[in-house]
Amino acid sequence: MAPTTETNPTTRPRTLVTGGTRGIGAAVARRLAEAGHDLVLSYRADDEAAARTRAEVEALGAACATVRADVVDPGQVEELFAAAGALTGVVSNAGATLHIGPLADTPVEVVARTVELNLTAALYVARAAVRTMAVSRGGSGGVLVTIGSVAAATGAPGEYVQYAAAKAGVEAMTVGLAHEVAADGVRVVAVAPGIIETTIHADAGEPGRLARVGPTVPLGRAGEPAEVAHAVAWLLSAEASYVTGTTLRVGGGR
Ligand code: NDP
What span, in angstroms and rounded, lies between the C-alpha atoms of 215 and 222? Predict the structure, then answer.
């Protein structure tokens, strides 16, 4: 079987996007709504952004539920998937750099929180995604797209080595899990964005990071969330039915 969404024209794909209410996740939600997906969008705290993105995707014709759930809490991840019900796709997108600076100057609590959010939580979400979508567990098959980072390849020296290490872990998980569930109707693929125009950089303490780093990218600029969203939507589609266990970089040449 081809474990993909959009294979049956009579049923709409139903996709959960963690952190789907702002930034890249919200762009993914809008793009998937355009492609005919119904959506479950999770977030941590910003109710206003959740309501705004929900209204946007509903205006594009998608049924949409928003669920407040902190992905670092395994109990809340369980509750999120219980609330989501049957799914054909999961985009594990929630994440953050949290801090910018050399590792030796980064507080240990920040190191721990960064790995917890960007790697441990991604493992919780991936585990729940397989339990929901795997054919042997009563699911209909589907696709898990994990959001990594080009930092996994560069190591992000001087900026956030701990984040880069966590995202490298996400790529390892993507390969291993893809092989683990390939015969169970689930594809697992990573998208690794380069520097993208969201508030993640300001939230980590450097509002000028886009202007500083953008011109150093081979394509000469930071990317837009929609440019990542197109890649995610393609990987979720039937057109990517032979793609699993790999990372697609959307990094302007990085
Ligand atoms: P944003 O900060 O713009 O959005 C983050 C989203 O994730 C929000 O919806 C936020 O919810 C949610 N979120 C954050 N923490 C949690 C949590 N603990 N539990 C549940 N949801 C949470 O981030 P980006 O769009 O920039 O980043 C999205 C992904 O892309 C991340 O994994 C990031 O590491 C990755 N990435 C980003 C790059 C960039 O340059 N922007 C580059 C490479 C990778 P709320 O609104 O409630 O806070």
Answer: 8
Quickly count: other Cβ atoms within 10 Å of residue 72's Cβ. Answer: 15
What superfamily in CATH does domain 14-250 come from?
Answer: NAD(P)-binding Rossmann-like Domain (3.40.50.720)
Distance CA 15, CA 88 (A): 6
Q: From the CB of 96, is ligand 1 less than 6 Å away?
A: yes
Domain residue ranges in the chain: 14-250
Is 251's C-beta closer than 6 angstroms to any atom of ligand 1? no
Question: Quick one: residue 110, left, alpha or beta (phi over 0 = left, psi -120 to 50 = alpha)?
Answer: alpha
Element (H, E) at 173: helix 161-181
The β-bridge partners of 157 are none
Let me know: does 151 contact 160? Beta carbons within 8 Å: yes
The closest-lying atom of ligand 1 relative to the alpha carbon of residue 203 is 2
Task: Give the DSSP letter string of 48-95.
Answer: HHHHHHHHHHHHTT--EEEEE--TTSHHHHHHHHHHH-S-SEEEE---
Ligand 1 centroid–CA 118 distance in Å is 10
Which sequence positions are flagged as catalytic? 163
pLDDT in tens, 157-211: 999 999 999 999 999 999 999 999 999 999 999 999 999 999 999 999 999 999 9
Max CA-CA distance within the chain? 55
Supply the residue whose CA is at minimum distance from atom 32 of ligand 1.
Answer: 95
Q: What is the pLDDT of residues 24-49, one digit of tens each?
A: 999 999 999 999 999 999 999 999 99
